[in-house]
Amino acid sequence: MTDTFNDLQQSYGRCLARRGFIERFYQIFMASHPDIEPMFARTDFQKQRLALRRGISVAILHAGGSAIVTRTCAQMAEVHGRQGRAPVPPALYPYWIDSLLVAVAEFDEDADETLLARWRAAMQRVCEFFTHHY
Fold this sequence. Notes:
Blueprint: H1 6-17, H2 21-32, H3 36-39, H4 45-63, H5 70-79, H6 93-107, H7 113-132
Helix pairs in contact: 1-6, 2-6, 4-5, 4-7, 5-7, 6-7
Organism: Marilutibacter chinensis
Protein name: Globin
């Protein structure tokens, strides 16, 4: 039986139900490494917040093996690939994961070490996919 990470979808829903989750993630993420904030210098954050909101859902589905998001995930990997419009060096993905987990721990009142470990495992799957396509 495949792990669909339904618990992460529920956790993500709890995070989004509390106002400011995506904004808080970006605060944490941009402060996590000196190379990250400059990458967002010309970013339209209204669009970026929506893209991330969707992207996390896609990442959870991808981690669960959903074929529905295969094309979307490949497109996201292309955007963040070496030749993409927003390249992300693979060395920065651990900062993305760590920042997301800090934000989840702050916004999901049911987050515990087990749930956060599952978040990490799922997000590592999508980051490995992106790294493979870099």
